[in-house]
Design a protein that fits this description.
CATH topology: Rossmann fold
Order of helices and strands: EEEHEEHEHHHEHEEE
Shape: globular
Structural class: alpha/beta
Number of strands: 10
CATH class: Alpha Beta
Number of helices: 6
Largest sheet: 6 strands, mixed
Strand content: 25-35%
Helix content: 25-40%
Distance between the termini: 25 Å
Radius of gyration: 17 Å
Length: 229
């Protein structure tokens, strides 16, 4: 996944804001990269562009080597479904579905509705340590467990990139550390990269690489701490 000289303008007239100003960033398989910066720096906008939710005003985005410019909306949606997994701050789970069905729904939208999909969903929940919670509904799960379900949903389709927007900000320190351990383990797969947007310095040691953004520009990059297990 790669952004090359990406700019993004949001709003119109007096409310027009240049959220990104010539940003270049790449995410490699087998790494956990962290995008850090203050509120309003362009972190979430960049994540949305990398994940093909937003289109850049200018610049190039490549997903698995494919440039998205000029692609039809349905082709971009297909590219996103097959190659990108999203993890959100607020989990985005369906309250009327149990854990396994919340995970399986990511396969439903890809047309996988067989018993194989159920098996894949259970396997993803096992990966995040929730084999014993497959029938549990979100309201009976802790915040950390709900986020684990969300991670399982993001990885169940075996995407090449996981994009996580403030995945620990709604959690206490202990649960935040546990979630980062799960993401770090996922990022050890050479075919999959993980990009975490955060402003929480406590989770920096989990990153292989830290990218800093301010006022819509990349202002620095450094090697992260030793990957924790």
């Amino acid at each position: 996944m790669q952004a090359i000289d990406v700019a993004k303008t949001l709003g119109r007239g007096a409310g027009r804001v240049q959220a990104l100003k010539g940003v270049s960033l790449s995410l490699a398989g087998g790494e956990l990269a962290m995008l850090m910066g203050p509120s309003g720096s362009g972190k979430t906008t960049l994540l949305s562009i990398l994940g093909c939710i937003l289109s850049p005003t200018s610049g190039t985005v490549r997903v698995c080597g494919q440039p998205t410019a000029g692609m039809k909306p349905e082709d971009i949606a297909k590219l996103r479904r097959e190659n990108v997994g999203f993890i959100f701050q607020s989990y985005h789970l369906f309250p009327t579905l149990n854990a396994v069905d919340n995970v399986r729904i990511a396969l439903d939208v890809r047309g996988e509705i067989s018993q194989t999909a159920v098996a894949k969903a259970k396997e993803a929940l096992a990966t995040v340590g929730l084999s014993h919670k497959v029938k549990s509904f979100p309201l009976s799960l802790s915040g950390g467990e709900q986020q684990r379900v969300a991670i399982a949903r993001a990885i169940v389709g075996n995407p090449s990139a996981i994009l996580a927007d403030e995945p620990t900000s709604a959690l206490d320190s202990e649960n935040g550390q546990a979630i980062m351990k799960v993401l770090a383990q996922i990022a050890k797969q050479q075919a999959r990269g993980v990009l975490v947007v955060s402003h929480d310095p406590r989770i920096v040691p989990f990153a292989d690489r830290i990218i800093r953004i301010e006022d819509g520009r990349i202002v620095g990059e450094e090697t992260g701490g030793a990957r924790l297990n």
